[in-house]
Structures are given as structure tokens and as C-alpha cells.
Amino acid sequence: MFVLLGMSALLMGCSEQRDSKGQQTAGPAPAAAREVARPAERPAWLAPPGSERPLDAKQSVQSAGSREEEPRPLKIGVIGPETGEEARYGLRVLDGVTQAAEAFNARGGVAGRPIELVHLDNRSEPAATERAVRELIQQRVVAILAAPTGWSTFAPTRFANDSRTLFMVVGTRRPIRSGPYVFRFALPDELAAEALLRHLTTDWRYTRFALVTSSSYDESLMTSALLKQSVLSHGGEVVVEADTYDAYAGQTAVPEVVQRLAGQTGVQAILYTGGAEEGARLAKALRAAGVRAPLVGGEDLFDAEFLEKGGQDVLDTLLFSSHAPERGPPHLTDRFTALAYDAFMIIARAIEQTGSTVPAKVRETLLTMTEQEGVTGKSGFTAEGVPVKHPFFYRVAQGQGRLTFVPVTPGR
Known about the structure:
The protein is an alpha/beta fold. 37% of the residues lie in helices and 19% in strands. A seven-stranded mixed sheet has the order 7-6-10-11-12-16-17, with helices on both faces. α4 crosses α13, α11 packs parallel to α12 (304-310) and α13 crosses α14. The longest helix has 20 residues, at 87-106. Residues 1-42 and 50-66 have low confidence and may be disordered.
């Protein structure tokens, strides 16, 4: 049974932050995707550089995977919501993959052959996801790139492994341990936490921290645990912990958090693992209470909303990001679009280096190739398939009459 009992609630609610009537191939992204993912110009918040087709009922997923040693067509599939409430994620991933395919094929593709894209809208629905995955596997695509939404991320993994089709989820923070053919292309939180604390303790000489979690946000709990471990491993101390969500009252508790932090002395930085809107409210309340320690966070704060709602109170905030918009083309300023661009490129290069479209052989290349330089920096995988990426660091500063995110180079 495609949907495992007991998983439905998890899948329906684990997003990371055109109803198509036929298959679509590589070419310009649909207008809706470009409107969502491509701003008309460089965003002001960034500082200058320093669908389904009918199924063939006779062809099963297992039979599609039984010819694993045979070359496959030079095709890569894309699955995600292109319509519905979560379409912003699917369209951004699709846009990044489409841009990458255009660029890769313009340079000659694989030995002069273009890689074809087949993208299907799963609408974040279980039945549509099953149909889309089966269709892509029946077309014998070499790999499937998926948006970081619940059904897109977790539901296809068993079919991908059974059919020996590479499956790579773009941008998800959740570890996916579901078999040898399943990968994720993202900055692992444990690597980001370690690099952030090394930067804070070595370059900024911070050793005493407050840790503020937002437990209404699942990823915040995990990130806070990793940051606490990293603080201790770097000889620092978490002198106070607080949570912006009161589980008993079922509501946010920012004033209570501020009261706790205002009563502490010697806190040099406030590690915060929640989102942009709440982070801005927290920063304003802390400054109003006379707390001057800078906020330190992750890429959830790397958003224009954080600057707009926080104003001067978010000055000097430090944060990490999985991508650096100033490094790439202006149309890749969104992290999901940029990560999708590089995810396509790393698979395309692996196919090119392998000289084969057999997924098992491409997989071995992915696990052994050197880190690849891309618009989101260097990327690769360990022998166990764990993603290897490196965070970028930014500081909120005043620039030309507005707040901006200014790149920070560790060690300087």
C-alpha cells in the first residue's frame, strides 16, 4: 500500500517553511514559476558582493527496476506541488532545475546530448504523488528531484529504491534514511551548527550564550539541540535557555523570554532558532528591554521580512545560510531555487563523469566524486550518502539608507 498507516499526519504537515494535463519537457519555466521564484531585480535586502499521464497498468515499478544494468533515457524527473497551498516550494524547485537544464544543455549536455526534463505536479496529495512517481519510473528517468514538502519528500522513497532510481530531495532539513538510492541536497544542520560556533568562538570570541528555541516549529527543537552541543564542544557555555512557545497555554511567550534574558548578565550572544517574523519581534522586545547582545540565527532569518519587521533593532544580527545570492545569477536569490539548480548540476556532472545512464553507476560516482563548485558553494556526499556543504555567514548592517545582509568571511 502506497501510504503507510500512521505516516499520514507526518507527511501532510512536514513542509520546510497549473494543474498540468500532460508531460512537460525542458524549456522555459512556466510563467507561474518565474513569478514566484524570480524577482524582477536584485532584492534590496542583499548587500552588493565584497500533469500526470495515464498509467500503463501492465508495467509495475518492480519491472521498471528489474533492468537496472541497462542504460536509461537521458531524462531527469521533477516532482512537487505546482498548484495548491505548497506550490511556492514546488515552483521554486522547478524553476531552479529548469534554469540548470537550460545552462547545462546550452554547453553541450552529455556528449552532445541534451538532458530532458519531465516534471509532474503532485499537488501535495497522496494519490497524485503515487501516479507521478509511477509515471516517472515507467519513463525510466535516471533521477528524480523532489521539492521539500511532505508527500514529495517521504512518500516516493520506497518506489525509488525498489526501481533503483536516484531520488534527491532539494532543501529539506530532515534526514532521510530510506535506502541507497535516496539523497537530500541541503546544508545539514549539524554541519551548520558546528561551523557557526567555530566562527562565533574563534572570530568573535563569544563564549557565553543564551539559547532561545521556538518549539512550535519542529526544526527549531532539532537545531537548538545541535547548537547546544556545539557550544559545549567549543568550550562555551549556555547560561540561560528559553522557549518562545508556551506549550501549556498554547501560545507564544516572547515577553516571558525577554524577561528571563533581561535578568541575565554576561550573555554575549543570543542563539535563536525560530523564524523571521518572530525573530524580528524578539529582537525589538529585547532592545526595548535594554538587552544589547546580538541575535544569532540560521537561514530562516535570511529573509527580507526579518529586516522589514525588525528595523534598526536587528542590526548586527549574525546568521548562516546554505547559499550566497551574490555568488550566482540574479535569478537564483531564493535558496530553494539555488539549491535545485546545483542539485541538477551535480547529478548531470555525475552522469557525464560516469559515461552511463545506469543509476547504480551514477550513484557510485556521486559518492566518490570530488566536491563540486556551484552557486551554493562546494557540494558533495560522503560514502554513506550524507550531504557535504558549507555555510555562508552574514551580518545585518546599514547600507545606502537601508538594512542589508553583508557577507562575513570567517577568519577575518
